[in-house]
Design a protein that fits this description.
It is a single chain. The protein has 4 helices and no strands. By secondary structure, the protein is an all-alpha fold. The longest helix has 58 residues, at 40-97. It starts with a helix and ends in a 20-residue tail after the last helix. Keywords: Membrane, Transmembrane, Transmembrane helix.
Length: 117
């Protein structure tokens, strides 16, 4: 395991040294670019850039819409809870105002029917 870590570390050190020694001016100079440079990764990156961009954009918007969906679900639940609390308050107030009416059998959800008073 230790040898693997050392080899990976050496690989990172070599790539870091190469990145420090490489310059864009030298890489894109016409003579070096067409004769000595390894242009495969450059052109692969250039040709696949739209796909990478579209994929990253899809990931971003998926995460944003998931967050928005969670917020809307919570908002709907709190609205529902608030409406039920208001119904309970109305029911409690009606019980206090009209003790002779039998709300226990038919609660506030049944109040819109024919008059039973």
């Amino acid at each position: 395991m230790l040898s693997f870590v050392k080899s990976v570390g050496r690989g990172f050190a070599r790539s870091y040294a190469w990145c420090k020694s490489a310059s864009f001016r030298r890489f894109f100079s016409e003579d070096y670019f067409w004769t000595k440079a390894n242009v495969g990764p450059f052109f692969i990156g250039l040709l696949t850039a739209p796909y990478w961009f579209a994929g990253i954009k899809n990931i971003y918007w998926t995460l944003r819409y998931e967050q928005l969906n969670k917020q809307e679900i919570l908002s709907d639940r709190f609205t529902w809870l608030y409406e039920r609390m208001l119904e309970d308050e109305v029911h409690k107030t009606l019980l206090q105002k009209l003790p002779s009416y039998k709300f226990k059998d038919n609660g506030p959800e049944n109040m819109l029917g024919p008059s039973q008073i």
